[in-house]
Write a structure and sequence with these properties.
Elements (H helix, E strand, L loop, with lengths): L1 H6 L1 H27 L2 H21 L3 H22 L4 H21 L9 H5 L7 H20 L1 H9 L1 H6 L4 H23 L4 H13 L5 H26 L3 H37 L1
Length: about 280
Amino acid sequence: MIQALFEYRFLQNALYAGILASVVCGIIGVIIVEKKLVMMSGGIAHTSYGGVGLGYLLGFEPIIGAFLFSVCAALGIGYIKKRGASDSDVVIGLFWSLGMALGILFIALMPGYPPDLSSYLFGNILSVTRSDLYIMLCLTAVVALVVILFYQDWKAYLFDDQFAAIMGVRTGFLGYLLLILVAMTVVVLIRVVGIILVLALLTAPAATAALFSADLKNRMICAVVLGNLCCAAGLWASYELNVASGAVIVILSVICYFIAYGARAVRFGRKRKHAASSAACQ
């Protein structure tokens, strides 16, 4: 595959897409896991399907439609949750279903044969184009820059948002900003693992990193590295075995988490056993 990587443009695009996806997953995924926003992120991701369908119906880039729908869903969910007008799980479920239903409706309204949307639903990193890469690069740069600029505020917000508000941190602004960053991250990941599998790649590397470190910066770096390894391995496996790339990347990410979790459990079990035996000897 190394030789093919230098020969074929689509493999180069896939590698670059995996790197960009790993960066946003490592940065935003850690925050999502820490703030327990996994299901909300899933609602935003699935709402973006409506934008994909609208893009095909009106003849513009579907990924731009996905971005617009994701941002609108993020702001809508955040506003309703902040106002406390309804249970957040109900709102997430409604946006989730509405986005998928609108996507199906828009595709059904298209004249002629409907397009193949499997790459948007399940991902196909090998089909990433240059235009997709430019969009992913811009969104990744924005996400990374925003997190770096407000890094200290993010630390306070993740530790205790009420205490952060007392200290003068604009927690309301950070909450909405986080949801918009999640929407951007979803758009970056759609072409890699698809709308349906976005949640796994958002959470698995971040959750694995949390097993090794409690420091925010170290967790983000570790999650980025793990994401890159899983994307590279998944890309190689999908190319060699001719299987779905998004599914392989997600499977490897989840396996990596369970291996790390098992290793950590065994290590702590040995430590407790050693401590118990030492106390008994004394």
